[in-house]
């Protein structure tokens, strides 16, 4: 039921039976605490993301998404204040994460962010990566 995209040449993906997984987790107190902590953290992240999505319009939601991506997958470009998001993400993916009806709206908003010098695009090996040029301008688009 899940779409899985592996972004690494050295990744391993395991699929296990859900019932056996929970039996294993429940048999080990340390693992049980780890899983509970993981779910608490994810729940807190999701509440925070939902709150920011409801407080912002579409542009704010996109800006917030780009900021989250920069925190998780961003690499500072040496000698600059630019941050490259080292994760391939399509406009359709962004639309889904930001609850935007279609990817053409995302394309238009990204183009506007590019024209206002907030972001730029870096094409490496035929893959488009988003580069944040001005994190302050990006933050100004997000209502907290």
Question: Can you put this structure into words, describing what you see?
Answer:
There is one protein chain. 55% of the residues lie in helices and 12% in strands. With 144 residues, the chain is α+β, with helices and mostly antiparallel strands. It folds into two domains: 16-55; 57-144, Arc Repressor Mutant, subunit A. The chain is globular.
Summarize the structure.
By secondary structure, the protein is an alpha+beta fold. The protein is built from six helices and four strands; from the N terminus they run αααββααββα.
Measured distance between first and last alpha carbons? 34 Å
Give start-end ranges of low-pLDDT stretches. none
Task: Name the strands of the widest sheet in spatial order.
Answer: 1-2-4-3
Overall outline:
globular
CATH H-level superfamily title of the largest domain: Winged helix-like DNA-binding domain superfamily/Winged helix DNA-binding domain
Overall mean pLDDT: 88
Helix content: 40-55%
Percent strand:
5-15%
How large, in whole angstroms, is the Cα Rg? 18 Å
For the secondary structure, the number of strands is 4
- Multimerization status: single chain
CATH architecture of the largest domain: Orthogonal Bundle
* CATH fold node name of the largest domain: Arc Repressor Mutant, subunit A
Task: Describe the structure using short key phrases.
four-stranded antiparallel β-sheet, 2 domains, Arc Repressor Mutant, subunit A, alpha+beta, 144 residues, 12% strand
